């Protein structure tokens, strides 16, 4: 990140605090970025991170990836022989697409060797099996249920081989798809859900943005965009999720919503259950994978790494984090940590063993923000 881009990002968030800006009018189509040499990180910030919009990067961005050479046959199919030689004995989690458990799929574990045996038989049987349609976790070997990425993170997904069809809904549009219990649909393409006479609220959602992702292409999924993915071919993909200063407030807002949902579910025991607030944090962690205490430690780890960059006045080298990105992130962490420290439910957390204490870390961050802003 250069100084000009940081100034633009700081200006965008100034005055918002930990409020989450909306995406405004959703685009009619998803932008396609074709040339790596003509696209900078500053372009990415302006065009997609700040407005929180999706895009597709061409296969030129992944042309040098070893996986695109070694995991794929000359015909563009998964190279089962290479995968077996390299990873055959690895135990992997596999989900059954044909069975729904709440808004997810039941999972089992098997070796990659056993999974590839199943995969080959599935192909030979015309993409059918009495065992159902199984996919290997994180490789999305058929269909992902309708969801937004964990903790409202950003994500990118690259097709090493094969093609995918994506359906994306801007943040907030998924609310029109909830049933009377507040649950999101498992499959947004189901005929019953598409019948607006049976589900009149669906007219409010509008059509999703559609992407057909080709081999080698990368899809950027912004924070809070619900999406569903269908594999059109035998597909291997690599996916990555991340949080930075641009979507940290989204994560914090999501965690507050998760806690509120838990508290509402167990509200009738509030007066009779000892340590009710503590139990809510325990339940939140079991449902979401994190609670307020762990979120503080998450912020602490990131803050200390960013503060180290600022103290060392690291030079921007085009590949590393760089001073300007670290300074921007510290500013956003400061806003979120201040909100966390002031939250009544965090104030009930026992922080006596925390080092540094939350208010001490907040003071360090505020001093760093002031120093980074100095001319």
Structure commentary:
By secondary structure, the protein is α+β, with helices and mostly antiparallel strands. 39% of the residues lie in helices and 16% in strands. It has helices spanning 3-13, 41-49, 66-70, 80-87, 112-124, 191-194, 202-205, 248-265, 276-288, 292-312, 323-342, 344-347, 358-373, and strands spanning 31-33, 55-57, 91-96, 107-111, 134-136, 143-147, 154-161, 164-169, 209-213, 218-221, 226-231, 236-242. The chain has a five-stranded mixed β-sheet, with no helix packed on it. A four-stranded antiparallel β-sheet has the order 6-11-8-9, with no helix packed on it. Helix 2 (41-49) links the parallel strand 1 (31-33) and strand 2. Helix 1 (3-13) runs parallel beside helix 11 (323-342) and helix 10 (292-312) packs parallel to helix 13 (358-373). The longest helix has 21 residues, at 292-312. The two termini are 18 Å apart. The mean pLDDT is 88.
List keywords for this structure.
375 residues; alpha+beta; 5-stranded mixed β-sheet; 4-stranded antiparallel β-sheet; 13 helices; 12 strands; globular
In short:
The chain is α+β, with helices and mostly antiparallel strands. 39% of the residues lie in helices and 16% in strands. The chain has helices at 3-13, 41-49, 66-70, 80-87, 112-124, 191-194, 202-205, 248-265, 276-288, 292-312, 323-342, 344-347, 358-373; strands spanning 31-33, 55-57, 91-96, 107-111, 134-136, 143-147, 154-161, 164-169, 209-213, 218-221, 226-231, 236-242.
């Amino acid at each position: 990140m250069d100084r000009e881009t940081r100034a633009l990002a700081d200006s965008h968030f100034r005055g918002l605090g930990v409020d989450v800006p909306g995406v405004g009018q959703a685009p009619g189509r998803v932008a396609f970025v074709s040339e790596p040499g003509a696209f900078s990180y500053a372009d990415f910030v302006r065009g997609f991170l700040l407005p929180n919009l999706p895009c597709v990067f061409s296969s030129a961005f992944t042309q040098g990836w070893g996986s695109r050479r070694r995991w794929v046959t000359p015909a563009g199919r998964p190279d089962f022989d290479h995968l077996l030689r390299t990873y055959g004995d690895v135990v992997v989690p596999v989900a059954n697409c044909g069975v729904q458990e709440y808004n997810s799929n039941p999972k089992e574990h098997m070796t990659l060797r056993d999974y590839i045996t199943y995969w080959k038989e599935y192909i030979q049987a015309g993409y059918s099996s009495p065992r159902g349609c199984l996919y290997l976790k994180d490789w999305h070997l058929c269909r992902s249920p309708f969801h937004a990425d964990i903790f409202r993170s950003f994500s990118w997904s690259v097709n090493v081989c094969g093609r995918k069809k994506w359906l994306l809904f801007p943040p907030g549009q998924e609310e029109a798809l909830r049933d009377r219990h507040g649950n999101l649909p498992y499959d947004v393409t189901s005929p019953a859900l598409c019948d607006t006479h049976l589900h009149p609220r669906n007219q409010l959602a509008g059509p999703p943005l559609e992407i057909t992702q080709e081999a080698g292409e990368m899809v950027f999924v912004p924070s809070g965009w619900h999406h569903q993915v269908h594999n059109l071919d035998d597909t291997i993909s690599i996916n990555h999720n991340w949080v930075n200063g641009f979507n940290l407030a989204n994560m914090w807002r999501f965690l507050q919503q998760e806690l509120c949902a838990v508290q509402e579910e167990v509200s009738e025991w509030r007066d009779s259950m000892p340590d009710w607030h503590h139990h809510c944090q325990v339940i939140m962690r079991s449902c979401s994978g994190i609670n307020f205490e762990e979120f503080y430690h998450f912020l602490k780890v990131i803050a200390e790494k960013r503060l180290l960059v600022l103290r060392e006045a690291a030079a921007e080298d085009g590949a590393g984090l760089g001073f300007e990105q670290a300074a921007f992130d510290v500013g956003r962490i400061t806003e979120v940590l201040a909100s966390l420290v002031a939250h009544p439910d965090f104030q009930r957390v026992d922080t006596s063993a925390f080092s540094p204490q939350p208010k001490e870390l907040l003071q360090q961050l505020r001093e760093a923000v002031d120093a980074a802003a100095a001319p």
